[in-house]
Structures are given as structure tokens and as C-alpha cells.
Design brief:
Elements lengths: L2 H31 L12 H34 L17 H28 L13 E7 L4 E5 L4 E4 L1 E5 L4 E7 L5 E4 L7 E3 L5 E5 L5 E7 L11 E7 L1 H11 L8 H8 L9 E3 L6 H8 L5 H13 L2
Parallel strand pairs: 1-5, 4-10
Antiparallel strand pairs: 1-2, 2-3, 3-11, 5-8, 6-7, 6-9, 9-10
Helix pairs in contact: 1-2, 2-3
Length: 311
Amino acid sequence: MTKRKKSQVGLAGLIILMLGCIALCSAIIAILVQGREIPLLDPKGYIANEQYKLFMTSTAIMVVFAAIVLFFLYFFAWKYRETNRKAVHDPRAGRSKLLIVTAWASPIFVFIVLASLMLPATQKLEPQRSIASENEEITIKVIAMQWKWLFLYPEQDIATMNYVQIPVDTPVRFELTADEAPMNSFWIPHLGGMLYSMTEHVNPLNLMADTVGEYTGGAAEVNGHGFSGMRFTTRVSTREDFESWTAEVATSSRILDNTEYQRLLEPTEYDEPLTYYSPYNKDLFDTLLAKYSGSHDHYGVEAQTVSEGHH
């Protein structure tokens, strides 16, 4: 066999080896995720669907670019190997302008393509932006505690602990804050991205589910002992089921007054039961914001303004 044929066979073998490695890695990933529910890859809401498309598109672009770079890396390593007598090194040769332009233009092109996708998506999927829909938006106020979540429904005059129910195909505005807890992160992976809940602030997060079912939400921030149990159930139901549920909760004998709220503020881990309240103290949310308004003067006015704008 001639040296030329040996070189061609070696290059073909290198390409086959690279493709084999890619196939092997893909097979291993497929085996690991088989039968497992991965919320980020199984969107159940408008925002999550848009984020999933953006994630898959940007990943595909970067994988293609990385594959090209790796191919040429191994190609040149193979071509200019020590045993290849035909590869001539000329120390007097100047720099290749084409190579320099290609080396700089390629990543810049990828950056421009990704930026053209990301910038419009950043505006479109902004958490504070309301979601257009034929159905009327509902508002749910969320209070992060140690280590549990309290949900207030001002329009239905009910409250729930570690459980939230929303109607399908309906925009939901979550207004996030915290009490007696460090900065936390509110996240329902099936429905969209996470957003922080902080004392003295009201951070609005707009989501809309498009599939009936039950999904897990919780804290995505490592923020202290007990955070791993800071989970809640999100149930997406039909509009009729949602109205029936709110009417049923409204008959609850438990009242969320100041005494009960102070009890809830006590840190608990893993053992806080699902609880319904009706009615609840309507001044609770505003009182909570005012509680921290003096802690940072440069934020106090902002928190008060945001709160007044939502009530």
C-alpha cells in the first residue's frame, strides 16, 4: 500500500473514530435520560415552550460550530504528524491571511447569529411582560418563607400553603416577595424560567400553562439548611375545575390572620402540610413590604411604589 493510500485510510479512520465517539456519547445520554422526566426538555407552558425552542436552536448552532472546529483540529494534527513526510514545514512562510480572517470571522459570525436570536427573545420572554391571551389574567401573590411557599389569591380571597392551582391557557401573574428568609428563587421548570423573591421587593413573573397536569415547583437556590425540601405542587386544571376548587377552598374554616401568619413564619423543614385558608388578611402583603421598607432607604421607595402599582 502506498503512503498516499495509507494517509487517506488514516484520515478516514480518524473521521470514523470521531463520529463513533459522538454516536457513543449520544447513546449514553439517551440511556441515562430514558424513562426519566426532565422538565426542561418537557415544556408544558407558553414561556417554557419558547425557551425550549431557543435552547435547542442555540445548542444546535454551537454544536455544529464545535464539530467543525474539532474536525479541523484533528485534521491538521493528522496531516502534520511526524510520520507524514509529505507535510512540509517552511519556516520562511508568512502568515496566511485567509486563515487569520477565517479564525476571527467564524466565531464572530456565530456570535452574531446567536445575538440575533437571543436579543429579541430577551424582550419577548421578559418575566415582567404580560402574556397576550383571550382569557383574563389572574394574579397570585407569593411569599417565600423558611422553608415553604405561601400563595395568596386576592381575587378569590383564599390562600394556600405549598400548593398552587391555576387554569389552563390562562395568563398568571405571580408577584414574588419574601419574609424572614434569604433571597430565594421561585421556579416551576415545566412552565418557565425562575425568578428571585426578595424581602422589600415585588418581582412579577408571568407564566401560562397549556397542558393540564401536576408539576413540581420549588426553590432553585442553595440558600440554607432545609432548602431542598422547599417544594410545592402546581396543578394546572380546566377553568371549570379551577372555579370549583376556589369555591371549595372558600368554605375552609381556617383563617389566615396575623396569629396564624406568625406561626407560619417559624422555620420548618419538610413537615409543613398542604393547607387552605379562607379568608386571609388582605393587608398582609402590604404590611409585609412595609416591614422591610426602612432596611434600605434606596430601595424602600421602589418597593412601596411597586406595591401600590399592583393593588
